[in-house]
Automatic annotation (TrEMBL):
Gene3D superfamilies: Spore Coat Polysaccharide Biosynthesis Protein SpsA, Chain A (3.90.550.10)
Membrane topology reported for the UniProt record: Multi-pass membrane protein
Cellular compartments annotated: Membrane
Gene source species: Cryobacterium algoricola
All residue ranges annotated as the Glycosyltransferase 2-like domain in the record: 338-563
Pfam family, one: Glyco_trans_2_3
SUPFAM superfamilies documented for this protein: Nucleotide-diphospho-sugar transferases
Transmembrane segments: 12-33, 53-73, 518-541, 547-565, 577-596, 624-642, 654-674
Name of this chain's protein: Glycosyltransferase
Top-rank taxon, per record: Bacteria
Entry-linked InterPro entries: Glyco_trans_2-like (IPR001173), Glycosyltr_2/OpgH_subfam (IPR050321), Nucleotide-diphossugar_trans (IPR029044)
Main location group: membrane
Keywords on record: Glycosyltransferase, Membrane, Transferase, Transmembrane, Transmembrane helix
Length: 739
């Protein structure tokens, strides 16, 4: 797909508006001619019919509302694509020529394959930016006992050094070239053809280096192919284009001036100059070990800008800030900007310079986070990965449109963050005598969504950059997809009350809040809940055939037609509309489970455990329940079809038949018959066999007095009865755990 979105035509925008109007008109006409008319024609309706009619009207209204929000966001994206003008390359070169601010790229990683992390680090390392620093935040257990796990961890730790060593050679050459040219033009700013040819030779060398690297890369799948073609060769092609311009200038009589020569030379040095490192928070007992990505990021961000002294205690190594004349063991540099990047995501070549340039425009002084919502890698080998990728590309468009209405949400795969903004929303706690700083909330497993609301409450805004500059992997099988989608479905309802509080604060400040923003944000956080329950109602409830009307179908038709058009625009098929519908049906129990987890958290007040999406070469087994329920949907739809045919209920029969076919096809394509048997059998075995429980440690009062004295623990804790396990349990009760 192209980096810059095609400019929508006037006709396309006109039809987008017509789709919105048609959806509203058909929905209103349905309520008037069907629901209201039924009550008018039935002077004394019984209780069952009344509740059925009201319930059906509510379900149709909520589903139509979600469809309408899709169309509204879609129209907003068209407006943004139409007005977007790309910043010229020369303006970027001028802005960053003497740039002094830095950016720190944070790559949180847990149990990732080494080659996946490597590609991500390379895509970040080849960003053109002055003072670029990349830190791989490893969240694996630092001292694994399994030899294979240790081997993978050591290989991942070595990535930073390996990439830095490879880049050191071209970086050294181009840094020396910059110094030579600065000396060359001191007192003599006249550029000659020899100067231009000398710069052209550097650009040729840079392109050659990248092309040689691309030739040596091993390509195993479509993601590797994208990495080679778009990340490495994409940058090489851009440098070749600059080389063409320089060679043409050298042949003519009109040369770039001295400032341009130096700026173009600086660009090469910035592309290949980077500092890489890795950090493991679990090596330090004073940092949070909470098992989620947010606290992995928070732990490192909390260390930035300070010199630290390491100390050894009975709990393990701890970090304390160096005070006075104390020399720290290490210092974590501070930067004005942060870039968070998931370990399975890739950035295109000028992601950093374009997004930071946006943040530094005067009108964007209160923009806290900007990003390009990630797109999917095309050419996936599995059907489920392709249909999940299609839905990802639709989400990219919707997030772009939401920015038009000031309803942007931070999507955590990648983002450039103004560090000053997250310092406004930081929460500081003291746990076990150590300060724990929380910048990105971890109360829910969709931490980026809640942080978006927190930033808005402090007067900050978020903006999505209207280009495609980032890509992220989609789960390759049904089992790993369940983990991801169940996590996405959990938390929106918990965050919604915080959004209503934000609205009250903004209105109190006399800030204008558009209804389009309110509706889009509410739909984003709550639509999974009402859509899931609504779909269950339509599938399972034997509603009166009089409630069905062609206008329900007509109200939904603009949504499906628009989605098909958007899929085709994003490089997919129009017919993927039906595949996505079946895809959502098999994911119905997954979404319901995520929503119910939100209700559980509301009642219990405890955080839901964060479960990361497994990304491994082998297939991930799906829980048996999520495999069985889609088959039950097919069976119940066929039963409904049989019943409706006997009662000559044509409309309901067609709907039931369509659901049975769509779900059955989705089972075959996305789960697989044999995989279903295997996953159900594994689920049965897991139910029958129980792991042997380890014996509990003796209570503190029953500790054998003759046991060896843990003198370090006594001096540290001040109580012999305290041990590592009790401390862990206590900290978990506090929200921040240390394991």
């Amino acid at each position: 797909m192209s980096i810059v979105h095609p400019r929508p035509t006037t006709r396309a925008i006109l039809w987008a508006r017509v789709a919105i109007i048609a959806t509203i008109v058909f929905w209103a006409y349905y309520l008037l001619t069907t629901i209201v008319r039924l009550f008018v024609d039935t002077p004394r309706p019984d209780f069952t019919f009344t509740m059925e009619a009201i319930g059906y009207a509510i379900v149709v209204t909520f589903l139509t509302f979600s469809a309408l929000m899709y169309l509204v966001a879609r129209l907003g994206s068209m407006y943004r694509y139409q007005s977007h003008v790309r910043v010229p390359r020369g303006e970027l070169d001028r802005h960053f020529g003497n740039y002094r601010h830095g950016i720190t790229v944070l790559v949180p990683s847990y149990a990732e394959e080494t080659h996946v992390v490597r590609a991500t680090l390379w895509s970040a390392a080849l960003q053109e930016f002055p003072e670029l620093r990349i830190v791989l935040l490893l969240d694996d257990a630092p001292f694994p006992t399994d030899p294979e796990t240790l081997r993978v961890l050591e290989a991942t730790r070595a990535l930073a050094g390996e990439i830095g060593e490879l880049l050191a050679v071209p970086a050294g050459r181009f840094q020396r070239s910059v110094e030579r040219r600065l000396d060359r033009f001191v007192g003599d700013p006249v550029v000659t053809a020899a100067d231009v040819r000398d710069l052209a030779s550097d650009y040729a060398a840079a392109a050659d280096w990248l092309e040689k690297m691309a030739e040596q890369e091993e390509v195993h799948d479509h993601v590797d192919e994208f990495f080679v073609d778009q990340v490495i060769m994409g940058l090489a092609r851009e440098l070749r284009l600059s080389l063409l311009a320089l060679e043409a200038a050298a042949e003519g009589a009109d040369f770039p001036d001295a400032d341009q020569i130096v700026t173009l030379s600086l660009r090469l040095a910035q592309i290949f100059t980077v500092r890489l490192d890795y950090f493991e928070r679990k090596k330090y007992a004073s940092l949070s070990h909470e098992a989620n990505k947010a606290m992995n990021l928070n732990s490192y961000i909390g260390l930035m800008g300070t010199s630290w002294v390491t100390g050894h205690t009975a709990e393990g190594t701890v970090l304390r800030a160096a005070v006075g004349d104390t020399v720290g063991d290490f210092t974590v540099p501070d930067t004005e900007y942060l870039l968070t990047l998931d370990a399975d995501s890739l950035l295109l070549r000028d992601y950093c310079v374009r997004l930071v340039y946006l943040l530094e425009e005067p009108e964007n002084a209160r923009v806290a986070v900007t990003q390009t919502p990630y797109s999917s890698f095309h050419g996936a080998p599995t059907r489920i990965e392709r249909v999940a990728g299609a839905s990802t590309d639709l989400q990219h468009m919707l997030h772009q449109g939401m920015t038009y209405y000031n309803a942007t949400f931070w999507v955590g795969a990648n983002a450039v963050i103004r560090k000053k903004a997250i310092e406004d929303i930081v929460e500081v706690e003291e746990v076990g005598g150590f300060e724990i700083r929380t910048y990105i909330q971890d109360r829910t497993v969709i931490e980026d969504t809640e942080s978006s609301i927190d930033l808005g409450s402090h007067g900050w805004t978020l903006v999505n950059y209207p280009e495609r500059l980032s890509y992220s992997a989609t789960p390759p099988d049904f089992g790993s997809l369940i983990v991801q989608r169940r996590r996405w479905a959990n938390g929106g309802l918990l965050i919604l009350p915080k959004f209503w509080d934000q609205l009250r604060e903004r209105r109190f400040r006399r800030e204008r809040v558009r209804w389009s923003e309110v509706f889009l944000r509410t739909n984003y956080m709550a639509s999974i809940a009402w859509s899931s329950f609504g779909l269950v109602f339509l599938l399972a409830f034997p509603y009166d055939s009089r409630l069905l009307s062609p206008f329900v179908f007509l109200a939904a038709l603009p949504y499906f037609l628009a989605m098909g058009s958007d899929l085709r625009e994003a490089g997919h098929r129009f017919s993927d509309v039906f595949r996505i519908y079946g895809f959502n049906l098999v994911l119905l129990p997954v979404n319901l489970a995520g929503v119910l987890k939100s209700f559980q958290q509301m009642l219990s007040g405890e955080k839901i455990p964060f479960v990361r999406t497994p990304k491994v070469l082998n297939r991930t087994a799906a829980p048996a329940l999520y495999v069985i329920v889609p088959y039950l949907i097919v069976a119940f739809s066929l039963l409904t079809l049989y019943r409706d045919i006997n009662h000559q209920n044509v409309g309901n029969a067609v709907f039931a038949a369509f659901n049975a076919v769509a779900t059955g096809a989705a089972i075959l394509m996305y789960i697989g018959l044999w995989n279903s048997v295997v996953d159900v059998w594994l689920g049965l075995l897991n139910f029958l066999y129980v792991d042997v429980k380890k014996p509990k440690r003796p209570a503190a009062s029953l500790i054998d007095p003759s046991a060896p004295v843990d003198w370090q623990g006594i001096l540290y804790h001040g109580d012999r009865r305290l041990n590592r396990d009790s401390r862990t349990s206590r900290d978990r009760r506090h929200r921040i755990g240390v394991r």
